[in-house]
Structure formats: structure tokens, C-alpha cells
Amino acid sequence: GITIILIIAILIPAVNSQYKTNYNESSIGSPIPKSSEGPNLCHYVIDINIVGEGSVSLDPPNNWYTPGTEVELTANPDSGWSFSHWSDDLTGSNNPEYITMDSDKTVTAHFTEDQYTLTINIDGNGAVIKDPDQTTYTHGTVVELTANPDSGWSLSHWSDDLTGSNNPEYITMDSDKTVTAHFTEDQYTLTINIDGNGAVIKDPDQTTYTHGTVVELTANPDSGWSLSHWSDDLTGSNNPEYITMDSDKTVTAHFTEDQYTLTINIDGNGAVIKDPDQTTYTHGTVVELTAVPDSRGWI
């Protein structure tokens, strides 16, 4: 007899090459579980790359997705960083953004360091030095601020995003900052001392003077007194005299009593006795004069 052997070939359709079967591992490293829907159900994975400092959240938060699934991607920048844009299989800068899973996807989230401005305002006369001196600063940069008042001015205080009156002072850049340095004109005192009898007139006559003010000093001696000279922060004997206020000043006006001479003339024969008998006399002195005629017939 003749034996007939039948070979039956059972053909199984090949899985489309663009899919990963439910027995593959995802690119993230998590196994894809077997589906109850059949051995040929395919899944896709998203490979997330980060440039800069931050993270990306996925919703739904799976490592694998069935075809047609829409996935929401949310970029979460670290402190001091901002989301810039997406690249690879996602473009633009919307956050969150959406991607439809019709194949394996690679998405890169680009984060950039925040750049902050430091605006310096001046109230009064002076300047502020920044160290480091930059147009913008990254998050967390500490900037030293040194106030340099003009001559005759002083730093009073800081305001806006900086307070107090320390100089230098420091500010940490964690946002755009504005700092105002307040300078005030120095106020100087002019102390007048009197030696003797008299007074001094100040023009202008003020309690304090700003830097650079010129003050005219006029000495007014009492009756019978005269200005001798100035001392301390003013010298000489000019009257009036001028002093420029660039610091606290002290001026002493020295007055001396006027000295008068008493001249006695004799007509005839005799003498005059002065009491007191002095070469000079101060103002207001009373002198007794006694005429003493000669004894030989003079009266």
C-alpha cells in the first residue's frame, strides 16, 4: 500500500513591525504585562530626556501605552529654573502639552536658569557699586551692594527690596529686585566761642549747614573792645571773615579791651598828678588829675 503523509502548515500573521508585542520590555525598563485581549496587543513607550534642571510628569503615569492613547506631559522646573521648550517628538513651549501614542516616542524637556534683573535707584547724590556687576543674575546669586556717597553726602538707608543702613549690604537674587539707596546731605555745626567782650554774627544764621555752605562771620566788639584775631578753624584778623562748611567747625573770636593814652601838657610852671598813674587806660577808666603849681608864685 501507499502511505500518504499530510503536512499542514499553520500560518500565524506576523505582528506589524512598528509595534512592540506584549512580551517586550519598555525602553524605560519596566516589563509590559501580558494582555487579556490577546497575544498580539501592542504597546508604546515614551522616553523622556531632561536638559537643565527639572522633571516631567506623565498622565496617565504609565511606562507603556496602547495605540491612540493621549498622554499629558507636564514640565516641572526646579527652583530657579523655567521650562523653555520641547524637542524631538514634541515641539513648542506649551505646558502642559499632549502627545498621541501611535509609536514609541522620545521627548526632551529643555529647562533654562531664570535670569533676574537688579535695578538700582538713587535718592540724593551718590552711587552704588554691584559685585558682581552684571546685567542679569541667575537664581541664588548673592550680590554685594556698596553705597558711595558724593562729597558732603552720607548713606541714610536702603529701601524697596533691601532695608536697613548697613554698608555694604547683600541681596540674594531669587526674583527681579529693585533697591533704592537714599543719600542725605551732611549737616555740620558751627560753634562760636567768645574770648573777651563782643559777639559774632553768622550769615546765614543757622543751627546746621550743608556741605560747601560759605558762612560770613562778623565780629561785633562791645564798646571799648576791639577784635584781636580769630582762632581754631579760622585764623587772621579780617573782619568780616568767611568759612566754608565741609565738617563741623569751631571758631573763637578774641576781643581785647581798647587802651587809651592820657597826654598831659603844661602851660606855665607846675605839674599834674594822675591817679591812677598809668601809661594807658582801658575804656571807662576814671582818672583823677591834680594840678600842682610851682611854689614860686604860680597858681
From TrEMBL:
Positions of the Bacterial repeat domain: 44-114, 116-186, 188-258, 260-295
Pfam families assigned to the protein according to its UniProt record, in alphabetical order: Flg_new_2
Protein name, as recorded: Bacterial repeat domain-containing protein
The organism of origin for this protein: marine sediment metagenome
